[in-house]
């Protein structure tokens, strides 16, 4: 697997190029019979476990993350052309751990690095949203095909500081032509 990019060293045009070059397996086209449980779990903090033990090999987690799919019923599976295994996900399967911002106001572009090393540019296809949960509001980023990343608190605070510094009437940020409210209001 390619090394995890350092977001600080990349421009948003570099990030856009890397995203265009990234090819994921076509998990949406694979429909094998369900084979059972993977005995894997993704904790709220993004740690992957197998049979109760953390998976220590970063490359394995990155590989598994490429074959992760969300089913129509909201469950998660690891899928290959020949098997489909359930995987438990406590919150979101990914965690957005780092932020890169360029521009201001409507010209702003935001990109995130996930705990798996993947890059996601917030925009019309990758919404940033606040979801009310039992323990308060939580920020999420749409990654792909129903898969989301929980935005870590430090990154959320960065986003909020940028939004508040802009002093707009509505607390939120633009990214790649889409506005994302950060005040929890729909």
From TrEMBL:
Matching InterPro entries: DUF1285 (IPR010707), DUF1285_beta_roll_sf (IPR023361), DUF1285_C (IPR048342), DUF1285_N (IPR048341)
Organism this protein belongs to: Sphingobium indicum BiD32
Name of the protein in question: FIG003620: Proteophosphoglycan
One Pfam family it belongs to: DUF1285_N
Residue ranges of every copy of the DUF1285 domain listed in the record: 25-92, 93-182
């Amino acid at each position: 697997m390619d090394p995890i990019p350092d977001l600080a060293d990349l421009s948003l045009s570099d990030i856009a190029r890397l995203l265009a070059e990234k090819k994921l397996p076509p998990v949406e086209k694979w429909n094998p019979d369900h084979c059972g449980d993977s005995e894997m779990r993704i904790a709220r903090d993004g740690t992957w476990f197998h049979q109760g033990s953390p998976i220590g090999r970063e490359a394995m987690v990155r590989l598994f993350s490429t074959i992760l799919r969300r089913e129509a019923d909201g469950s998660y599976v690891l899928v290959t052309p020949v098997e489909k295994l359930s995987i438990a996900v406590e919150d979101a399967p990914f965690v957005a751990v780092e932020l890169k911002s360029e521009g201001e106001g409507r010209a702003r572009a935001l990109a995130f690095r996930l705990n798996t090393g993947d890059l996601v540019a917030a925009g019309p296809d990758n919404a940033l949203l606040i979801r009310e949960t039992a323990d308060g509001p939580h920020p999420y980023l749409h990654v792909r095909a129903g898969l989301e990343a929980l935005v870590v608190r430090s990154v959320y605070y960065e986003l909020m500081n940028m939004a508040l510094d802009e002093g707009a009437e509505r607390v939120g940020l633009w990214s790649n032509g889409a506005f994302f409210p950060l005040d929890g209001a729909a």
